[in-house]
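Hi P.,

Sorry for the delay on this. The queue was packed all week, but I finally got your sequence through. Input first:
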Amino acid sequence: MEIKVKAIKCEVSEKLAEFVDKKVSKIGKFFEGAAQLAEVTLEDLAKEGKKAKIQIHVPGDDLVIEKVADTFENAITECADVMKEKLTRAKEKKYEN
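Then the structure:
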């Protein structure tokens, strides 16, 4: 799965990029072969915290999760956990029909 990282109002360190790659690549295993592209957007909201958005393109749909937390790592982890559940449901729905 290809992972694209976009930063808004912040810089993405090499360590953070590796963390994103590690977390998001694990998500792809929940819907083997169907998830070809994941877009991760990181934004520093100053007073509100750090926002992470994961958008995964699967055939016939785009799955999007956004979370705000005190750090990018926490926001990404929260997004990844919810996305795993969403991908699992999408996979079950696809194979039900």
